[in-house]
Amino acid sequence: MIRTFSARAILVTCLTAVVSVIVTAAVALPVAVASANRQARQGLVEKATLVGEVFAAARPAEREALLSRLRQQRIQVYLVRRGVADRPGLPPRVVRAVAAGLPVDQRVTIDGRQMLVAGRPLAATGNGVVLTRPAVTGTAGLVLGNLWLALAAGLVAGLAAGGLLARLVTSPIRDAALAAARLRAGDRSVRLAVRPPTEVADLAESFNQLAAALATSEGRERDFLLSVSHELRTPLTTIRGYAEALADGVVGPDGAPRAGRTVLDEADRLDRLISDLLVLARLEAADLPVELMPVDLVELIGAAAEAWGGRCAGVGVVLRTELPDAPVVVRTDPGRIRQVVDGLCENALRVVPAGAPLVLAVRPGPDAGVVEVRDGGPGFTDDDLAVAFERGALYQRYRGARKVGSGLGLALAARLVGRLSGTIEAGHATEGGARFTVALPSEHTLPS
User: Fold this and answer.
1) Are 235 and 269 in contact (CB under 8 A)?
2) Which of 130, 197, 350, 393 might form a disulfide with 387, Cβ 3.0–4.6 angstroms?
């Protein structure tokens, strides 16, 4: 089995050359035979005319010399005298035509062989001369006999063309394979030259885009791991500090409840971070279970507003709801949607100043139910909106400038909504801060 592309290219070009030679020979063979017979008939007619003139005026010795030369050319001469041939073999109709003073130029069968016949009448009535020669049938054998030369030439040309073609075609493929090996080894700077033909240029551009995307993705992954490690280290440091203080007796009985609450808060923070990581990992592996059912978004968001009312009041944030009078029913997982809304509210309370609003809204769409979470916080820039749902992107931008979470919340929300066949968008809120719009398919738009 031929495994390399170069060998296959050479084989294909050789076969193409051989087939071309055979097809050309097959097409040219009948044309060559017909042309040879046409030339032979024309020459035989000219010789018959010449013999007729010689026999009419030449001496017997000259006639005999001419007949000898014709026999050497495989041409037989028949003399017709008073309507009778000098020897048998000629078809009667040929003899009668010459005896009647008519010229003859025919192809007839004599003794089972195809013969060319040319006859000319002489001056005397009933006399004439007839020349015959075998029809051209050996051209086919000649062509086929010489076909091996053309086949050999075709094979040589096929080998040369195949080698050149294989080199031209496999060179960019080989370059791509070597570049891929370097990329696999960790070299993210490798790039391919973009050059014709179009297919090769497309391959090079796709490879370069892949390499650039991989480098960007790994950069974001490193940033994400740094942010997660920072988030893990902070509560662990706090827990370790209080644990050492309790162990060394630095914290007395009066301070123990406060230390315990602090440790518990930090442990809860660690638990939330680890839970987010696990959910995000399961979402990316597409094995997070969801339970779809008809859900009234008005009821769900109303319940969320009641749950968040106390926390908002505790930090001075004004919680408002915008809920329609009629139900807005979608088919989704209520627990997962509540998880998304809670995460968005958690992010908002982290940055919204006291006295600013936090708005939970529901509205029907053409084929979807829409949930909005808007706030009056610092909001996002247009550049922030482009990377809002990438893991750790906003964390890296605003760490140290404002309160930030783990950098997982928005990425988790985007993947949860996507798993529920919905969409989520980030934008600017009329309240001055951030706006998150979650659209979920209405129940009547989904197949039962």
Assistant:
1) yes
2) 393
CA atoms within 13 A on the CB side of 189: 0
State pLDDT tens for residues 368-422. 899 999 999 888 888 888 888 886 666 666 665 566 555 677 888 888 898 888 9
**What pLDDT was estimated at residue 438?**
95
Helix (H, G, I), strand (E, B) or coil at 296: strand
Respond yes or no on whether the N-terminal peptide bond of residue 253 is cis (omega within 30° of 0).
Answer: no
pLDDT in tens, 208-242: 898 888 887 777 667 666 656 656 776 787 788 87
* Alpha carbon distance 224, 41 (integer Å): 94
Write the DSSP assignment of 315-335 as a string of letters.
Answer: TT-EEEEE--SS--EEEE-HH
Q: Do 205 and 179 form a contact (C-beta atoms < 8 A)?
A: no
Read off the pLDDT of residues 15-40 as tens digits, 9 standing for 90 and up. Answer: 777 777 777 767 766 776 777 778 88
According to DSSP, the β-strands at 357-364 and 318-322 are parallel
211 class by beta-carbon count within 10 Å (0-12 exposed, 13-18 middle, 19+ buried): buried
Task: Report residue 33 as tokens.
Answer: 């035979």
The tally of CA atoms less than 13 A away on the side-chain side of residue 337 is 34
Q: What share of the chain is helix, strand, coil (3-state, %, to 5)?
A: 60, 15, 25
Whether residue 422 contacts residue 332, with contact meaning beta carbons closer than 8 Å, is answered with yes
Torsion sign across C-alpha atoms 209, 212, 216, 219: positive
Buried b (16+ CB within 10 A) or exposed e, 220-245: beebbeebbeebbeebeebbeebeee
What tokens appear for 240 in the block? 């370790």
Alpha carbon distance 113, 105 (integer Å) = 17
Backbone phi, psi, residue 255, to 5°: -90, -5
Beta-sheet pairing, 113-121 with 293-296: unpaired
Among 196-205, 209-218, 322-331, the range of highest mean pLDDT: 322-331
Whose tokens are 């442990």? That residue is 267
Question: For the segment 253-284, what is each residue's pLDDT rounded down to a tens digit?
Answer: 777 888 788 888 778 767 767 776 777 666 66
Strand partners, 360: 321, 373
Per-residue pLDDT, 41? 84
446 falls in which pLDDT band (50, 70, 90)? very low
Sign of the Cα torsion 330, 426, 343, 361 reads negative
Taking the complete model, does pTM exceed 0.85, yes or no? Answer: no
Q: Are strands 128-134 and 329-332 parallel, antiparallel or unpaired?
A: unpaired
